[in-house]
Amino acid sequence: NLEGSASGKKFCIETLKSDPSTANAKDSKTLxxxxxxxxxxxxxxxxxxxxxxxxxxxxxxxxDCVTYFNDTIGMLNLRGLDDGxxxxxxxxxLDSVGRCETSLADAKVHIEQISGTIQKWKDSFGVTFDVVYxxxxxxxxx
Length: 142
Hints:
Blueprint: H1 6-18, H2 28-56, H3 60-75, H4 86-106, H5 112-137
């Protein structure tokens, strides 16, 4: 997140600049809404991939991951933005993906495609979390 390393902040800024949909955001709340939708889209893409892999490899840990990623979609919301709980609310989505990783590790499932999609989701989530944090708390770094 933005309070983290300079390289994390740089990645976040580069990601936002590279996405044309974020250029029209009129304020931090609109930008947060855009990023939440983008991370939901990443969740849906992950679900499609996981279902495809589960059809070829009917391993319960992979099926569990489909459920965990499905759960992230409902967790990615801004209902708590005005009350200052949005970052906590969306962090539950990261916890759900963590449960997927734990399930895969416990079952000793190591499929590069799954690892890649999880990392891609986490990268997307990281930018989203930072934007939501900023929308919720304002910028104290400048």
